[in-house]
C-alpha cells in the first residue's frame, strides 16, 4: 500500500495560498489607492474653493474699506482740518461761507464754479426721480446721481478716478474700442439686459460709439438687492486671477436724508390741550405727515399713524379716530425728571418744558439710545429699536421675510388693518419680500416705481424712514 507524504502535500499547496493572499493584498491596495485618489481630488477641490472664498472675502473687505475711507475722508479737507470752511481757495467759494459748507457736506451737490464740479462723488441719491431727462423726454423713473468709482488709476496727467465698465460689451469692428469704459453717473434710467438668457440689471446710456444702439443698455448692478439697477460695475484693480475678472459696485446713501421715526413728529398731532403744534421751534417739527407729491397727495403717515408712533414713544394709550392723545399737564411739564431720579419728588425746579415738543426733543429725540424720563413720571420715553433699522435699510424697498419690526407691528396693532411701511398696494396687504424683475420699473401699479415712489398715490414708506441717523466720525 503506497505511503502518502502529507508534509509534501501541504508544501505543494502553499504557492496557491500565497497567490490568493497576494491578490487580496493587491485588491486592498487598489481600493486604498482609489480612496486616496478620490480623497485627494476632493481635498484639492475643497482647497481651491476655500481659496476662492477667502479671495472673495478679501476683495469684499477691501471694497468696504474703500467705502469707509471715502466717507471718513469727506469730513476733512486736504490740510486735515475737520469740516473746514475756509481752506478752499481754488476755485474760490461761490456765495457766503455757509453756502459753501452746505454744498460740501450734503449729498450729491455741485460746486457752483465753472464748469460745475460734482461734490461727494462717493454718495448716491437715496431715492429715484420721476420726470423727463435729456436722454428721454417722456416721464420715467431715473437715478439723479449714483456712486462714482471709489478706486483710482494712473493716467497721463496723474492719479484719476477709475471708470465704470460693461463686461458684456464686445467690439463689432476695428473702429470700436476694445473695452467700454465710461463715467456716466447722472440721470440714469434703469432697464434690463439679457446675459446668457437671464435678465440682468442695466442702465441706458449714450456711448457715442458708432455702431452701438442709442440708447445702449450697459450692464449694471443691484447693490441693495431689490432687483433694480442702482450702480455701475467697476473693475477691481487686481488684474485677472485664474481666468476670472472681478468687478465691484457700491451704493452709499445717507440715513440723514431719511425721516427718523425716533426724532420726527409733525406739525399738528391732536392733543387734548390743543398743543400739538411744533411751530418749527424744535427739530421734532420734522414731519412724519409730510406730503411729497403735488396737488393733494397723501401724507407720508396719516394723522392716526403719527398718533400711533407717538403713543408708543411716550408710553401712552393710542386713541383711535379723531380722538386726541392725552397731553402732559402743566404740572408734568413743570417737573422735568433728572436721569438719576428715584422718586417723583426728585423733579427739578430750575427749569420747565415749554410744551410737548420741548419735552419730546429733550427726553428722546436728541438721545434715542438713552431715553430720559417722561415729564413728571418715572417712566422713560421709548425709542424704536435699532433692530428696526436693520429691517429697514439692507434691502431698500423690500421687507424682511420674517418680521417687519416694531414700527410695523405697532401700526398693525393700533390701526387694526393690513397697515405696514410697505403700504396697502402690496398683494393681500403684505409687504413685498421678493426682488423685482430688472425690467419691472414702471410696467403697472405693482412695479418698483409706482409701488414705492409715486408720491401722488399710495406708496411704500420703507425707503423713506430710518430709526437712527446719528452723526459721528466713528464708522462701523
From the N-terminal CA to the C-terminal CA, the straight-line distance is 103 Å
Number of strands: 16
Described by strand count, sense and barrel closure, the largest sheet is: 6 strands, antiparallel
Radius of gyration: 33 Å
Walk across the major sheet and give the strand order.
Answer: 3-4-9-10-11-12
> What fraction strand?
5-15%
SS-based structural class?
alpha+beta
Q: What is the mean predicted local confidence, pLDDT? A: 81
| Helical proportion, percent range | 25-40%
Description:
- The protein has 476 residues and is an alpha+beta fold.
- It is built from eight helices and 16 strands.
- The chain has a six-stranded antiparallel β-sheet with strand order 3-4-9-10-11-12, with no helix packed on it. Strands 1-2 form a two-stranded antiparallel sheet. Strands 5-6 form a two-stranded antiparallel sheet.
- A hairpin with a 2-residue loop joins strand 9 and strand 10.
- Helix 3 (303-313) crosses helix 7 (405-415).
Keywords, please?
16 strands, single chain, 12% strand, 8 helices, disordered C terminus, 476 residues, two-stranded antiparallel sheet, globular, six-stranded antiparallel beta sheet, alpha+beta
Provide the fold topology.
Elements: H1 6-73, H2 97-105, E1 110-111, E2 117-118, E3 129-131, E4 140-145, E5 152-155, E6 158-161, E7 164-165, E8 181-182, E9 186-195, E10 198-205, E11 216-221, E12 231-232, E13 234-235, E14 247-248, E15 259-260, H3 303-313, H4 330-333, H5 356-365, H6 386-392, H7 405-415, H8 448-453, E16 465-466
Parallel strand pairs: 15-16
Antiparallel strand pairs: 1-2, 3-4, 4-9, 5-6, 7-8, 9-10, 10-11, 11-12, 13-14
